[in-house]
């Protein structure tokens, strides 16, 4: 029984990393209504930028901060050079999706070319055993992931639901053309969303990279998990993806207790299919009412 509780607690920590990705991913989707798979770019830039500086003797704290700054810069660059141009040319959501996917794969290939395909580490000391909490052991990295996911979810919720900037975001997401007529600057808003999203993604990338190591596909795998958590939690919710991400991590790791480990990722998508069949609007979403004309 204790072993099962330990597996589930590890899943909660892993799910916190999914939740971090889902929160930032949902922020972009709520406003511009497309799946921005290029969200995985700043998520990969932050840990690899940290590693680049770390092997040159820069302290971990400074390297990590610089890595997050580089992640924010990459998010702003993608917004300026790609998404703003597509938005101004009235590109379809499918076009945005394909462009973001191409950007993600291009950066992933660049990481593979520059750093190789082997797993790298940004740890500067041996992994710590952690401490005991009731019947389970938990590490400082896991505690950090859980605290960060909750703190960022709370900050995003307050920002989106209780600030003037959040009103602008909801206005654009509700009716982009009408919001433009009313004087909302979509380009300026896009930059702010790109910066905040890249900050969250870079933080998630650092936590994930420190926990399990760096591979070129770190952004791709994290984004897939984040997308699943966002859909299950509700695309228009802030706290829903947090809860969904944590639950997904627990389910994924708990499944390893009963099934072979190669079924862990499959479990995520089975849960997604089940939720889409039973509640397509997500766990926290509101069912859409059809109006007869």
Structure description:
This protein has a single domain, classed as ABC transporter involved in vitamin B12 uptake, BtuC, CATH 1.10.3470. Helix content is 73%, strand content 2%. The chain contains 11 helices and 2 strands, in the order ααααββααααααα. It has helices at residues 2-32, 40-54, 60-88, 93-115, 140-161, 164-174, 176-181, 186-212, 218-233, 239-258, 264-278; strands at 131-133, 136-138. Strands 1-2 form a two-stranded antiparallel sheet. α2 (40-54) runs parallel beside α4 and α2 (40-54) crosses α8 (186-212). The N and C termini lie far apart (57 Å).
Features:
293 residues; mainly alpha; ABC transporter involved in vitamin B12 uptake, BtuC; two-stranded antiparallel sheet
Brief sketch in words of this structure:
This protein has eleven helices and two strands. The protein is mainly α and 293 residues long.
What are the SSEs and their pairings?
Layout: H1 2-32, H2 40-54, H3 60-88, H4 93-115, E1 131-133, E2 136-138, H5 140-161, H6 164-174, H7 176-181, H8 186-212, H9 218-233, H10 239-258, H11 264-278
Antiparallel strand pairs: 1-2
Helix pairs in contact: 1-5, 1-6, 1-8, 1-9, 1-10, 2-3, 2-4, 2-8, 2-9, 3-8, 5-8, 9-10, 9-11, 10-11
Distinct helical segment count: 11
- Label the CATH architecture: Orthogonal Bundle
Helix content: over 70%
Query: Using only CA atoms, what is the Rg?
Result: 19 Å
